[in-house]
From TrEMBL:
Protein name per the record: SnoaL-like domain-containing protein
Domain SnoaL-like: 161-270
Signal peptide stretch: none
A Pfam family the protein falls into: Lumazine_bd_2
Taxonomic path: Bacteria, Pseudomonadati, Bacteroidota, Saprospiria, Saprospirales
InterPro entries linked to this entry: FrzH/put_lumazine-bd, NTF2-like_dom_sf, SnoaL-like
Source organism, top-level taxon: Bacteria
Amino acid sequence: MKFFPLVLMFSAFCTLGQAQTDERAAVIACIQQMFDGMRVNDSVRIKAIMHPDAHLQTTLIDREGKPQLRSESISRFITSVGKPSAKMLDERIWSYDVRIDQNLATAWTEYTFFLGDQMSHCGVNAFQLMKTNEGWKIIHITDTRRKDNCITATPDHQKEIASFIEAWHRAAATADEEKFFGAMSSDGVFLGTDATERWLTDAMRKDLQKAFEKDVAWDFKAKNRNVAVSADGRYAWWDEVLDTWMGPCRGSGVLEKSGLNWKIKQYNLALLVPNDKIQEVMKVIK
């Protein structure tokens, strides 16, 4: 009987987690309905997910280099995208960062806008939504617009992250100081196998300067690797088993997307000790 409250608590947490997942999916579905409606010039479909008091705004830098804020009425937007167009209004969303509290939701989305097959511009949308009796409704959209560094195809995060990590290890193997430390964020942390080895990026660069003056700083080769990426595509984490001069090690790290590039926020290197050898190791390190 003493475990009954714990079971109830666990059940409540699971229910809450499922509710949050369902609400996130509902928010994304609302936003996607707007873009699906734009592709087929369906103003009725778009109007259905817009709050009557919704606002649309764009932040941009004009030709004189001055920041500007432009506003458009919701009725004008709906009328405009509802008119038949020679080329499809195709706004492709690459990621969703959704936050929800009660009946308020925000969604930060990376996008690229295409007219038919031709790329027009890209940027981010900042959505605000309100949950009404009829479901989620968009109450505000602010976007940015640019024509450079635009994504044109769905990113393969697994492939690009694997390539990034391999290049980072290769930079150490070729003593490429700029590439190795350039892959780490300025506040990145590297945890070595010794208890004293906790470096911030700049401190590590200073302490290991002599190692990078050689032809090879160190040469770790991955035997296997597991990578996971957050739903919004901004963060990733991985673990890997490495062949090293010390023997087999496990490395694990956290990545953050900075603009179009990944940066290492933390890396932890640990020596792997077989369970049947742990007593011998314990005697040595005590």
